[in-house]
Amino acid sequence: CEAIDSFSLSDKKCKNSNIQSLSQSEIRIYPVPTSSKIYIEVSSTYKLQNSIIRIIDIMGRTIGMVDWNNSKHEQEIDLATYPTGMYYLNITNQKDEIIFYQKIVKQ
Fold first, then answer.
1. How many CB atoms lie within 10 A of CB 9?
2. From residue 86, how far is each of 15, 35, 53, 74, 105 by CA, in Å?
3. Is the separation of the CB atoms in 76 and 70 below 8 Å?
4. Using one digit for the tens of pLDDT, what is the confidence trace for 48-104?
5. Could you tell me the sign of the dihedral formed by the alpha carbons of 93, 2, 43, 68, in that order?
6. Mapping DSSP to helix (H, G, I), strand (E, B) and coil, where does residue 57 land?
7. Which residue intervals of the chain are DSSP H helices?
8. Strands (E), 1-107
9. What predicted TM-score, i.e. pTM, was given to this entire model?
10. Mean residue pLDDT across the chain
11. If DSSP codes are grouped into helix, strand and coil, which group holds residue 105?
């Protein structure tokens, strides 16, 4: 498993090479950087129902989590109370496999 932006995924996440991942063309996260909210939009062809969005600090700790339990193609996450800095956003499927991973910046 290779590191992504100096942050390694756990072995649990890397062992399964059959994980279906979202590509950059299937998901949009904006605005980055942000001072308060970020929005996540996925292609209408991709269903994220029963997925989990995690916000992870640079120490690898999960500091925020949102269940994506609906069939909507857009999700909003409020980062207004988070300290300024760099974070990682990951989305996991029902099997706790990471299907998307991106660095985000809070101003």
1. 14
2. 27, 12, 16, 22, 5
3. no
4. 778 999 999 999 999 999 998 877 889 999 999 999 999 999 999 888 889 999 999
5. positive
6. coil
7. 11-14
8. 27-30, 37-42, 51-56, 62-68, 74-78, 85-92, 98-106
9. 0.77
10. 81
11. strand
